[in-house]
Write a structure and sequence with these properties.
heterodimer; A: 428 residues; alpha/beta; TIM Barrel; two-stranded antiparallel ribbon; 15 helices; 9% strand; B: alpha/beta; 5-stranded mixed β-sheet; 4-stranded parallel β-sheet
């Protein structure tokens, strides 16, 4: 019985390897869509004006298309194969799932990348893979794709490799030499969640590998300062992804975890991916998908820490007692409502740090106000010209012609500022 | 009124030369009628005076102004030329004028420049080349309709990226041709001049449809970044209506085969509630095969829980776990190890009997990992109520129900597997496996089974 089944599986695999490229592309793109990242920015500037090779990178990445899920399509995001020997419950490609399997050879991925790139569909390639045979074997295949692109075709576009934490450190080091960005997913915000939902993975191993990468990136940066021709190592740095809502972690825990990751590994980005129902889902998974808004609120809190000078503990203060960020208002507004004593802020006098705390004032608007107030005293009209909307901001600011009387202290302020939740909960 | 004409509406250098001369001659902004050859010229305007004033004013323009002006001049708004001159004029007295983003002129200029920069960016994003073969080989041709006069300004980007391939970008205002070495400019083109198809687009459309996650529909976000006016020249946009329309069905299908199986089922508060619930469970195919569910058996405060795979033929008929041949073997082995079965709680990872009929017999079939995972909900409920100190898993299926993964029994038997849920888990072979063996293999496996149980007995004695 067993043998028969195995033989059938093998024939089926052979069949899929022969299936038309389009069919396999659909399967392997479908399998890759749960990785949120599609960024292609922040790498070294390159071009191929010399007529050799192909491709260029600007400082800023380009989104060549948007899908109806609102996500940017910047890279050809693919799995080399969706066969996997691991059995992670949240993953559509886990061993025990019945999805249709397929694989590409490295050369096929190279050909697809180049023919898409030449037509200006993409900025480059984001390649990941299920684990076949062994972690090292899989990693070697991923590296081979990058090597062919860079060495044989002198490809100067963007390459993001998802590396496999269980693979040898030497292989990781090789990946960094070809790729612009490398990433390893921490998958779940808590170790308990990881051991329950991804029993084949281990948190120390994942973090150890992230640590190795961050050292290699730092070393290469340092070497570049001393020797101009020192080899580059992942010039766009490393990133990671956490699944939100598959385990019981609260927003406060997730924010804490993210800030630890930023600090320890010098990450460029932490991506949050709201757990979404997958076909062939494991029964161990909960229950209900978290609202997409939760993912959005986490990104906002991430921004507060990275660009607005909020300490992780301050973002956590914005959360409700159960550790969850409010869904009806953004975390900056939530924080301001809790610490009303810090407001109103005088736009004509307050330092940058205080301006950055005002709900509705972005980093650009803050810089514009700081520059403009050297020329004039700021009036409410001026603020309106520099920002999108001042409605939300009024209770928190003072200008030469505006001072909120009592408004800041009103108990119903939150209700007045909250946008009525328009949550797309089609299947709640 | 003085007439200032621009031969080419996007020619910044020509504008700068004229503007500099006019500022030198101290001509105030409201005295100039700018035109760029596109709009009607002011009939009453006169040509600028040719004579140079005896002591021309020196003209100052900051670097940020030049950058801003280079973008803004590409805007199609005819008023941009006058606005640029007005800002330049005012800068002569206030060199830091641009810092004041709240100033009306500055804000307006910033807005024009921003719209142009966005258009430049969108052109880089949304140009779609189609490949054709001509006498010299492969040629990549695109048709694009920009909002503003950004074609020439954007050529450099495409040369930097695609210098090694021959390409043409056709637009309603002009066409750009790169032959691999030089850039040539051609006359305005029509959409029909571009190739109608490219076989690779089918792959691209397949990719576009598959990378979209129907469980998270955010059409507003898409339209904001990819406005509808661009759709007519984006091949992938043809798929958007179908993708949106099908999204709801695709998500419902995902959920139906998916996760929220037990969402509406209350967690049982007693073992009898577990028994009742599982008797009615139809969450997986085995639950729907008409057999009866077999509940675990043993004291509610047992220290040891033993988990097998699923009820067999005899168990299903009797409605009790481990009463068939495998159960008898288990009883003997427990007895030999000094463990009292009456004080253990014996149950299975899967509660219903999975089989294929063969004549009058029902042949056992191994449950799939998915079925075990679904049934884990019931096993978890039993675990939560019994709260055993030690759990013994018989065989890989039983272990999967406890661990969430399929372990190798050979590799992991004989040691405690700690779990965050409390009890430690021990693995051993399933007794029915022993029954299928012959000769020396049978003797060897019996020994190992006895050893595992003896080890367990020791753990129970010493805690």
């Amino acid at each position: 019985m067993m043998l028969l089944a195995l033989r059938w599986v093998r024939t089926y695999i052979e069949h899929m390897a022969q299936a038309p490229v389009l069919d396999r592309l659909k399967i392997l793109a479908d399998a890759a869509k749960y990785d949120a990242s599609c960024a292609s920015s922040g790498t070294a500037k390159r071009n191929s004006r010399d007529g050799k090779g192909i491709g260029s990178t600007e400082g800023m990445g380009i989104c060549h298309a948007y899908a109806p899920d609102g996500r940017c399509i910047s890279l050809l995001k693919l799995l080399l194969t969706n066969h996997c020997i691991f059995d992670c419950h949240y993953c559509i490609n886990r061993k025990s799932s019945n999805v249709v399997r397929a694989r590409f050879t490295p050369q096929e991925v190279v050909d697809l990348t180049l023919s898409f790139y030449r037509r200006n569909y993409i900025e480059g390639l984001f390649l990941s893979s299920g684990i076949v045979k062994s972690s090292n074997h899989t990693m070697e295949q991923l590296i081979e794709v990058a090597r062919i692109l860079r060495e044989e075709h002198d490809f100067r576009g963007y390459i993001h490799l998802k590396t496999i934490p269980e693979a040898d450190p030497e292989l990781m080091a090789q990946a960094g030499l070809w790729a612009d960005r490398v990433s390893i997913n921490v998958e779940l915000p808590t170790d308990a969640g990881l051991s329950r939902l991804a029993p084949d993975k281990s948190a120390p191993q994942i973090e150890g590998a992230m640590g190795n990468l961050s050292h290699a990136i730092a070393d290469a940066k340092d070497a570049q300062k001393h020797f101009r021709r020192a080899p580059r190592f992942a010039p766009a740095g490393q990133s990671t992804q956490m699944i939100v809502g598959a385990d019981g972690a609260s927003d406060a825990q997730i924010v804490g975890k993210a800030s630890t990751l930023y600090d320890r590994f010098g990450l460029r980005r932490v991506y949050y991916s709201a757990f979404s129902p997958i076909p062939e889902a494991s029964a161990v998974l909960p229950l209900k998908r978290p609202p997409l808004l939760r993912e959005h609120r986490l990104y906002q809190s991430d921004w507060l820490m990275r660009f607005y000078g909020f300490a992780p503990a301050e973002v956590q203060q914005a959360a409700e007692p159960d550790g969850m960020l409010p869904l009806d208002i953004d975390p900056k507004l939530a924080w301001a409502l809790k610490f009303r004593g810090r407001f109103p802020v005088d736009l004509n006098r307050a330092p940058r740090e205080d301006l950055l705390r005002v709900p509705g004032l972005g980093t650009k608007a803050v810089s514009a106000i700081l520059a403009a107030r050297r020329h004039r005293t700021i009036r409410l009209d001026d603020v309106a010209r520099l920002t999108v909307s001042i409605k939300k901001m009024r209770p928190f600011i003072v200008t030469v012609d505006w001072r909120p009387t009592l408004l800041t202290d009103r108990l119903d302020l939150r209700a007045r500022l909250a946008v009525p939740a328009k949550q797309m909960e089609l299947f709640a | 009124m003085i007439a200032a004409d621009l031969a080419q509406p996007d020619d910044f250098d020509a504008w700068r030369d004229q503007a500099r001369r006019l500022v030198e001659q101290a001509v105030p902004p409201d005295q100039i009628a700018w035109s760029d050859g596109n709009g009607p010229a002011d009939l009453f305007a006169v040509a600028p005076p040719l004579r140079q004033p005896s002591s021309p004013r020196s003209v100052r323009a900051s670097r940020p102004f030049v950058d801003l002006a280079r973008s803004a001049i590409l805007h199609t708004d005819p008023a941009r030329l006058g606005l640029l001159y007005r800002v330049l004029w005012r800068m002569q007295d206030n060199p830091r004028l641009l810092d004041d983003a709240a100033d009306r002129d500055v804000a307006l200029l910033e807005r024009l420049a921003k719209q142009v920069r966005r258009d430049i960016h969108k052109m880089r994003a949304f140009v779609r080349f189609r490949s054709i073969q001509d006498d010299d080989g492969e040629l990549y041709v695109a048709w694009f309709e920009p909002d503003h006069r950004i074609e020439r300004a954007n050529a450099d980007f495409f040369i930097n990226r695609f210098a090694s391939q021959r390409w043409s970008i056709l637009t309603p205002r002009l066409s750009l041709h790169w032959d691999g070495a030089t850039l040539l400019e051609g006359p305005p083109a029509r959409r029909e001049d571009a190739p109608r198809e490219d076989a690779t687009e089918e792959l691209w459309l397949g990719y576009y449809s598959s990378i979209f996650n129907p469980a998270r529909l955010k059409v507003g976000m898409m339209v904001k970044e990819m406005p509808r006016r661009y759709w007519k020249n984006l091949p992938e946009a043809r798929r958007i209506p179908d993708l949106i329309a099908g999204a709801r069905e695709r998500e419902i299908a995902m959920i139906a085969t998916g996760s929220s199986l037990f969402e509406t089922t209350a967690v049982p508060e007693s073992l009898s509630a577990v028994a009742q619930g599982m008797a009615q469970c139809t969450k997986c195919p085995i639950g729907c095969n008409g057999t009866r569910a077999v509940m675990g058996e043993g004291p509610a405060d047992a220290d040891v829980m033993i988990v097998g795979e699923q009820p067999g033929d005899t168990e299903e008929r009797d409605g009790r776990p481990f009463v068939g041949p495998a159960g008898q073997l288990l009883d003997q082995a427990l007895d030999a190890a000094g463990i009292d079965r009456a004080r253990t709680y014996v149950t299975n990872a899967v509660k219903h009997f999975k089989f294929v009929p063969r004549g009058k017999r029902r042949l056992h079939q191994t449950p799939t990992a998915g079925e075990i995972d679904i049934c884990r909900w019931w096993l978890d409920a039993e675990r939560a109520l019994i709260k055993p100190k030690v759990i013994l898993a018989l065989g890989a299926s039983g272990a999967r129900g406890l661990l969430g993964r399929t372990p190798s029994i050979g590799r992991e038997r004989g040691q405690a597997i700690a779990q965050s849920a409390g009890a430690s888990v021990w693995l051993t072979a399933h007794p029915s496996y022993l029954l299928r063996l012959d000769g020396t293999a049978r003797a060897r496996e019996h020994d190992r089974f006895a050893q595992d149980l003896a080890g367990l007995a020791q753990v129970l004695r010493h805690g």
